[in-house]
Amino acid sequence: MKNKKLIGLMWALALLPAVLVALCWGRLPQQVPIRWNLDGSVSYSGRMWLWLLAVIPVVFALLFQFMPRLDPKRKNYEKFQGLYDFLGPVFSLVFLVLMAITLTESLRPGAVQVGRVVCALVSALLIVLGSLMGKLKPSWFIGFRTPWALSDPDVWNKTQRMGGWMFFLTGLITLILALLTPEKVFFTVFFVLLLGGLVLTTFMSWKWYREKAAS
Q: Fewer beta carbons within 10 Å, N or C terminal of the chain?
């Protein structure tokens, strides 16, 4: 990452979950919710688990900032540097929302429709990622990294564009379902569309590579 403002924003968002846990610690119950099941039941664990949840975005931010230095294709990051820098705060924001939901439900159980909020959050993230995938350049860490895409720049571009459309459409459809249907319906459709999109994108990546090799 090179944009100092976005780096600062990413780190501020990444550290906020730990700040929220510290501020709420004295009021938190000994057992806090850690998982919401499709049947409506909730699983609980000791509140120390929240510190683990707070550490995850910090580790992610650290990896995200320095990951390009480890990539053999590090020079390609300059071609989509603005996009890469933008994604750091986006993922940190997702972790922050998840922590906010967990703390709210720990202090005021039932205040949030957790299933719907999380489903909508996942769908929105797919829409954002899908709309940006086509701008990615070859790398070992980001994008649809099929062996055929990594072997040819043209195949890479086609693969990312198609994968991006699959993500975008999956997110758009499931966002509507997240607002209107039960969580079981959402997750069934979500996994069918996501898996189908991944399989189709992988197949087309192979097909485009074979066609170019044969020409």
A: C
- Using one digit for the tens of pLDDT, what is the confidence trace for 5-20? 999 999 999 999 999 9
Residues 11 and 95 occupy one common structural domain: yes
Tell me: do 35 and 86 sit in the same domain.
yes
Residue 186 or residue 90, greater confidence: 90
The single-letter code of the amino acid at 120 is A
- From the list 127, 119, 120, 117, the residue with the least C-alpha distance to 171 is 127
Query: What is the sign, positive or negative, of the torsion defined by CA atoms of 90, 182, 200, 158?
Result: negative
> What is the chain's mean pLDDT, rounded?
90
The per-residue pLDDT for 39 is 65
The Cα 87–Cα 159 span in angstroms is: 20
- The residue out of 112, 142, 174 marking a domain boundary is 112
State both tokens at 155. 């195949």
What pTM did the predictor assign? 0.86
Greatest distance between any 2 Cα atoms in the chain: 68
Q: Which domain holds residue 24?
A: 1-112
CA distance 198 to 195: 5
* Residue 2 pLDDT level (bands cut at 50, 70, 90): confident
Say if CB 14 and CB 57 are below 8 A apart. Answer: yes
Does residue 29 register a pLDDT over 70?
Answer: yes
Instruction: Show Cβ contacts of residue 171 under 8 Å, excluding neighbours closer than 6 positions.
Output: 122, 123, 124, 125, 126, 127, 128, 129, 130
